[in-house]
Write a structure and sequence with these properties.
The chain is α+β, with helices and mostly antiparallel strands. The protein is built from five helices and 13 strands. It is elongated. The termini are far apart.
């Protein structure tokens, strides 16, 4: 498993003006939260953070946060992006303990999409309803991603939340709190073009019947005129 180390320094200045100054200096304001400790205001190097964020695994891994000479285990809980510029404005980190469960969002990786039965044989299109999943587990069991095999998924069929195969140590947060196991994750639906063609084919016999009826009425009218 890949190891991510993020270097940070404590910061005394808080508030919007101070955060703006930090960003102009190539720093990103951050806050470290913990169940048994007060929130700690930090600053991290923007370039180092952006380099880590190029790797999808960074978002769902246990990170090593180095503050001065101390290394802490943390996870990335939230980040704020600039509305139109490619830069990070703020991030929230959460301390983790080896014996305490944590709740994290991990990405869904859909496998065998190129050989999906509903696509190859049925001419359908895969529709992804979920792209990530919130899970609950101990830090040592946190998965980098959840694999979802769609190879056997047929046309007009759906994989639901309850169909996902997770490691035994990992649970779905929603299901632990009364969520619906029937919530769709991914499905194979007929393409829009095929639906339109089918609708046209169903309408065609009606038009032919109308034409025949109109032709019959015309013949009858001509005979009456004679």
């Amino acid at each position: 498993m890949e190891v991510f180390t993020l270097t940070a320094q404590p910061r005394a200045a808080t508030g919007r003006p101070a955060c703006r100054r930090m960003r102009r200096q190539g720093l990103v304001p951050a806050v470290l939260y913990g169940r048994h400790q007060e929130a700690l205001a930090l600053q991290v190097n923007a370039l180092e953070l952006e380099r880590h964020m190029l790797n999808e695994a960074f978002y769902s891994h246990i990170l090593s946060l180095q503050v001065n000479n101390e290394v802490r285990k943390v996870v990335l809980k939230d980040l704020q992006r600039h509305p139109y510029e490619p830069r990070i404005l703020h991030l929230d980190l959460q301390s983790v303990a080896e014996d305490e469960q944590l709740t994290m969002r991990v990405p869904l990786h859909f496998t065998n999409a190129d050989t999906c039965e509903g696509v190859k044989l049925g001419g359908g299109v895969l529709t992804y309803v979920m792209t990530e999943l919130e899970v609950v587990c101990l830090p040592k069991h946190l998965p980098e991603y959840i694999e979802v095999d769609v190879g056997a998924l047929e046309l007009n069929h759906t994989l639901h939340l309850g169909d996902l195969k997770l490691p035994p140590e990992v649970q779905v947060h929603a299901l632990l709190h009364g969520g619906d196991a029937g919530q769709p994750v991914v499905s194979v639906q007929a393409s829009k073009m095929e639906v339109e063609v089918k609708e046209e084919e169903e309408e065609a016999p009606i038009d032919e019947e109308q034409d025949e009826a109109e032709a019959a009425d015309g013949d009858t009218g001509q005979k009456r005129d004679k």
